[in-house]
Design goal:
Radius of gyration: 15 Å
Largest sheet: 8 strands, mixed
Number of helices: 5
Distance between the termini: 10 Å
CATH superfamily: P-loop containing nucleotide triphosphate hydrolases
Structural class: alpha/beta
Shape: globular
Number of strands: 8
Strand content: 25-35%
CATH class: Alpha Beta
Order of helices and strands: EEHEHEEHHEEEH
Number of domains: 1
CATH architecture: 3-Layer(aba) Sandwich
Strand order of the largest sheet: 1-2-8-7-3-6-5-4
Length: 165
């Protein structure tokens, strides 16, 4: 059973497919301007979760890790865009500023950031912070921290649709 407080939820995903399905449920709830931070070590499931989020949001584009490209843009049939930023290769937040991350945050689409701890100082305080951890070959621990009223509301809705509570 998931552990829940008003602004946090912790649970275990038992397979990559379940991680993607949970991501789909997150993606279905996203609105323009939402910020989802995906933290965790290499192989923790960040990109797997991002694939589900983009699918649930309605992306027409395949989702790949933006590690070497740094920023991916996904389109939806209604021409809306979602942005997927990877800070793994950045030295610090000044690199993110030089790449235009503050401008992306002001765009109309939701934004997913992998390795957000590398640019945390320039991120708004209101956001969802999802920490993923490797448990074993198929299972991943997930901890969602909701910061700000919009994100607490998202967490409540996610809990209800994902876990029925």
């Amino acid at each position: 059973m998931p552990i829940l407080t008003d602004n946090c939820l912790e649970f275990l995903s038992h397979s990559p497919e379940q991680t993607r399905r949970l991501g789909v449920k997150i993606g279905e709830m996203l609105q323009p301007g939402d910020l989802i931070c995906l933290a965790g070590d290499l192989g923790a499931g960040k990109t797997t979760l991002a694939r589900g989020i983009a699918r649930g949001w309605g992306s027409l584009d395949p989702v790949t890790s933006p590690t070497f490209i740094l920023i991916n843009e996904y389109r939806r049939a209604d021409l809306a865009k979602m942005y997927h930023f990877d800070a793994f290769r950045l030295k610090d937040a000044s690199d993110a500023v030089a790449l235009g991350l503050p401008d992306i945050m002001e765009n109309d689409g939701p934004l997913l950031i992998e390795w957000p701890e590398r640019v945390a100082e320039i991120l708004p305080g209101e956001r969802w912070w999802v920490s993923l951890r490797w448990v074993d070959e198929s299972r991943r621990g997930m901890h969602i921290q909701a910061n700000g009223p919009r994100y607490v509301q998202l967490l409540r809705k996610f809990r209800k649709i994902a876990f029925g509570g």
